[in-house]
Amino acid sequence: MRQDIKISVLIERDRIMKRVSELAERITKDYQGLDFVMVGVLKGSFLFLSDLCRMIPHAMSVDFLGLSSYGAGTESTGVVKITSDLTIPIADRHVLIVEDIVDTGLTLNYLIENLSTRMPKSIRICTLLYKPSNIIKPVPLDYVGFEIENKFVVGYGLDLAEKHRNLSYIGYIEPEAVK
Ligand code: PRP
């Protein structure tokens, strides 16, 4: 893979932050008075979750779950692996899953099935990005930041072979560059 690949801007930092605050406002209303756990799916959601949770004034718990389906490639293998589990119980609590992107939907379908066996009061999903054109298994999305075209996106938590997660914006890479 080339080291000097060109990354074009898809969603600028200001637009991301505006949208995150809109989502936070809705979540704040919906979870008023409820005991809830925000579950970030690592690694991609780490920046989105950290911005989102700071804009929600309620007392909440935050935990993370490591899942991986892409490895170092750019296409889902369809095989989802838990690389690290939650550290707190979610039984009888409301769970809000926070994802950076829903692409094929395979990861979230696996996760919902897995977390449901732990008897939470409810499970809702908040994703920053959603690529409807790639869905293989539909998934109920409660909060969506942006619907995007089928582009390979990096930045604001998303990677290409573990690089570019630190970009403050969301960029895209031309397909030739990721092969
Ligand atoms: C990405 C992303 C989602 C998943 C979505 O994770 O963070 O968890 O893929 O894809 P899907 O809808 O096709 O299942 P990835 O496996 O790349 O791990 P990462 O978050 O550590 O980058």
* Unreliable sequence segments: none
SS summary, helix count = 4
Largest sheet: 6 strands, mixed
Shape: globular
What is the CATH architecture term?
Answer: 3-Layer(aba) Sandwich
Name the helicity range.
Answer: 10-25%
Are any ligands bound, and if so which? 1-O-pyrophosphono-5-O-phosphono-alpha-D-ribofuranose
How many domains, as an integer?
A: 1
CATH topology label: Rossmann fold
Number of strands: 9
Question: What spatial order of strands do you see in the largest sheet?
Answer: 4-3-2-5-6-7
Mean pLDDT: 92
Cα radius of gyration in angstroms = 16 Å
Question: Terminal Cα separation, in Å?
Answer: 7 Å
- Sequence of secondary-structure elements: EHEHEEEHEEEEH
**What structural category characterises the helix and strand content?**
alpha/beta
Share in β-strands? 25-35%
CATH class category name: Alpha Beta
